[in-house]
Amino acid sequence: MMWILLLLLVLILFGFGFTMQILWWVAAVLLVMWILGFTMGGRGGRRFSRSRR
Question: How much is the pTM?
């Protein structure tokens, strides 16, 4: 019975570690996309600004 609990604990911790690794990569990709959008948005004009009439 203890072996099953230990195995479940190891699987849960491994899954959590794997998920955290993926989340770090997703965060890094989103940061790069945000920086590129920030720098490109300054050159290309303001797309989301309200037009004054």
Answer: 0.53
Max intra-chain CA distance, the chain: 74
pLDDT at position 9 is 83
Give ∠ CA 36-39-43 in degrees, rounded to 5: 130
CA distances to 11, 18, 22, 23, 24 from 15, rounded to whole Å, are 6, 5, 11, 12, 14
Gap between the Cα atoms of 41 and 35, Å rounded: 10
**H-assigned helices in 1-53:** 2-44
8 A C-beta contact, residue 41 and residue 47: yes
DSSP conformation class of 1: -
